[in-house]
Amino acid sequence: MKKLFVIGIGGSVSKANIEVHDVQLVIADCIEKTYEILKEDWYGEHLHLDEYKALTGADGCAIQIKDYPQNTELNLFFLNRGGYLKETFGEQHEYGFFVAKTEEEAKEKAKKELLKNVTDSHVDGIFKVENSLKFADGMKLYIHLILDEKVYSLNPDWSGYKKLI
């Protein structure tokens, strides 16, 4: 069964003093089937996995993977929110997935949920998930959002350090 994997990766890149991190979204049968596409798209060295989650739902909607598009006005957005803590050096980040008709609506939802205890909070990045999907087996698939009002967590299924390159 195909799953939507949210994958936190990191590695070293030219001219950076510390490793950089990114989030990738890949549809695959299992996490191991995402490794090749992650390696192909990485632009630096020492690529590693930091965490992953098979996303089953978000923001009151279950997520299903189908081979045809869904006819809906709703979109699944990924949002990276940044902000600062006075006692901590460096920008803090929190990620979330939000179901909304528009980017502005997703931003408003995120403002209420992410990084509530920081100063100068801001959106570091937002995108429609469908525009950033990668497919482990090359077959284009589609996310279907099914309203169910459940609360879904972004807690990782696994976290640690797994070297890929």
Automatic annotation (TrEMBL):
Annotated ranges, domain DUF1543: 16-64, 91-135
Pfam families per record: DUF1543
Superkingdom, taxonomy of origin: Bacteria
Protein name in UniProt: Uncharacterized protein DUF1543
